[in-house]
Write a structure and sequence with these properties.
The longest helix has 29 residues, at about 100-130. It contains twelve helices and twelve strands. It is elongated and about 75 Å long. The protein has two domains: about 5-130 and about 285-290, Alpha-Beta Complex (Aldehyde Oxidoreductase, domain 3); about 170-275, Aldolase class I (TIM Barrel, Alpha-Beta Barrel). Helices cover about 45% and strands about 20% of the residues. The protein has about 290 residues and is α/β, with parallel strands linked by helices. It has a six-stranded parallel β-sheet with strand order 6-11-10-9-8-7. A four-stranded antiparallel β-sheet has the order 3-5-1-12, covered by helices on one side.
Length: about 290
């Protein structure tokens, strides 16, 4: 799925979340603007410039614009960069022309979206640029901010990463707690073998393994239908041993657990297809932007 298709599919949810963000900030009741700029003073039309204060990958510029058009359908934009562009510090990214009250009411909410999304895209791109094998992909996880996932995983895609599970309905993924709650891994795999043709996610079976014993169970009982095996918190040496084995069964390999910029190079392997990096959406740093009159 492309980013454009993703935004189209989630358009209604995005509009709703922008509305909720503006409601949270009580944008229609800006008492400071009413006090300082009473009457028609706040209706004056003014142009403000969006300035980037540090090098980054831009993400969320369309969301930024949607915040202001939600407040003023006639808001006008002159845009100099698009999502996915590398931007240098002090660059003028965009100009927005609207009433003073609209600019002041929407400023913080619009920047909140843009700063966080650009931070995620920038961090993601740092991992993507370091990939040693062209077929491999950097994936997001579900370790996202509640009610902000739509924007965070869009930012991962903008930074060059790829989509993974959007939610619990996206794929069948057997994790450790499923195994603990159900009994033995082999029992689950035998059951899935019987049900695989009945589930709508029959082409998306993934199993998380935490050791070589569980890996051997997957190969013995699930090699015919398991599409991806996630090696969770395996060491680089264990990843290499497991990857060579799984490659013989044409099972794709995902690495997860503790991947960071310091150890990423050690984990890269020609047989690994996916690297799930939780820190992309839970340990990023927001990029500094400002809206200047």
């Amino acid at each position: 799925m492309t980013l454009k298709e993703y935004y189209i599919i989630h358009r209604k949810d995005i509009d709703r979340l922008i509305f909720e963000a503006l409601k949270e900030d009580n944008a229609k009741n800006d008492i400071t603007t009413r006090l300082v700029l009473p009457g028609k003073k706040s209706d004056r039309i003014k142009t403000a410039g969006l300035v980037c204060k540090e090098d980054c990958i831009l993400a969320g510029i369309e969301i930024f614009k949607k915040v202001f058009t939600r407040l003023d359908k006639r808001a006008f934009f002159k845009q100099y960069f698009k999502d996915g562009d590398y931007i240098k510090r002090k660059s003028l990214v965009l100009q927005v022309r609207s009433s003073v009250k609209t600019l002041l009411a929407g400023e913080r909410t619009a920047l909140n979206f843009l700063q966080r999304m650009s931070g995620i895209a920038t961090l993601t791109n740092q991992f993507v640029k370091r990939l040693k094998f062209k077929h491999a992909k950097i994936l997001h996880t579900r370790k996202t901010t509640p009610n902000f996932r739509i924007f965070e995983i869009a930012a991962v895609k903008t930074g060059g990463g790829d989509f993974h599970r959007f939610d619990l309905s996206s794929a069948v993924m057997i994790k450790d707690n499923h195994i603990s709650a159900s009994g033995h891994l082999e029992d689950i795999l035998v059951k899935l073998q019987k049900l695989k043709k009945k589930t709508e996610c029959k082409d998306k079976f993934e199993v998380e393994v935490k050791n070589f014993y569980e890996l051997e169970r997957v190969i013995r009982y699930g090699s015919e239908f398991v599409k991806v095996v996630m090696l969770d918190n395996f060491s680089p040496v264990e990843v290499e041993q497991s990857a060579e084995l799984l490659n013989k069964f044409n099972i794709k390999i995902e690495i997860s657990g503790g991947i960071n910029p310091e150890n990423f190079d050690e984990y890269q392997n020609p047989f690994v297809d996916y690297y799930s990096v939780g820190m992309l959406t839970h340990s990023y740093s927001s990029v500094d932007f400002s809206l200047e009159f």
